[in-house]
Write a structure and sequence with these properties.
transmembrane, membrane, Mitochondrial carrier fold, repeat, elongated, SLC25A32-like, MCP_transmembrane
Amino acid sequence: MSSAVVNGLAGAGGGIIAQIITYPLQTVNTRQQTERSAKKRKSSSRGTDGSTLFQMLQLIQTEGWGGLYSGLKPSLAGTAASQGIYYYFYQILKNRVEDLAAARGKKGLGDGTVGMFSWLGIAAVAGSINVLLTNPIWVLVTRMQTHTQAERKILESKKELLLKEVSRANSMEVSVLKDRLDKLESEKLRPYGTLQAIREVYRESGLRGFWKGIVPTLIMVCNPSIQFMIYETLAKRLQSKRSGKQLAKKNITAMEVFLLGAIAKLGATVITYPLLVVKSRLQAKQEIGRNVASRYTGTIDAILKMIRYEGCHGFYKGMGTKIVQSVFAASVLFMVKEELVKLAVLLVARSRTLLITTPQKR
């Protein structure tokens, strides 16, 4: 089995484990990112996102434990596909660049190691391939995570309009409007699964709807690119500090991989978070109320409306939650992935040893 396939499968396994552990935080964070609010004065800006724990408890109270795991099935499929594709192409490109660097080193051109910007380029190409192939899955996940929130907004908007009509209506019309209002009050949210999300996206925008948010998502490729650049650079320095020569990756412990992954993801998340918010806004259901400020026609429109109606604060909604979720998830992913790669290498080595030592039957 090639190193690219091993790393792809290990990345998929690590991603699934990290996703299951941190998914409730991801659900809350997506809702924080897609929540619209007007600009606030300095005196009232404290605690704009609210406590993450409080929001989680509120979500459990209104939607049950299932609310924390809305869209988990497509999310796990997306995570497995994303991490598998990413690590597969990342390893192929990494092997090629390392071979080229070693060849250049033998010719006296450079020190034979891969530079920081080469890591950035490798991660960017692997990330772009991943994004183009898996964006439809993440559109569905975002829809499922924010469906209840969006439906409530639509319901509230309908009630507000009916109440305004009631205040202007004559006595004969009032009873009819009140009946409609009562029906709205008793209306329950419909079950919403993957198939419903697929139909809704296709009905709204056709096939291109599954690639909504692709522009900021492609730009967001710089997030894992920065993450891997920081990670590989720190790992290389850690190895070189232990010895004057390059050491094998097995010399980095699981805890060290966990910490390096955390530092790398923290740096990448802080730098790229505003793009993540824009991406989530575009992928969420656009019909949130009838206010034009709540609907976006594209990336530039979303950015301009967010600046106009929410200010710069809107680009950092839920960043605290995202940092906790993404840093922990990345740390778990890196650690589990590296351990799975080590396990695969060990199993292959043992199977080869058994083949050599086991006498052939005649």
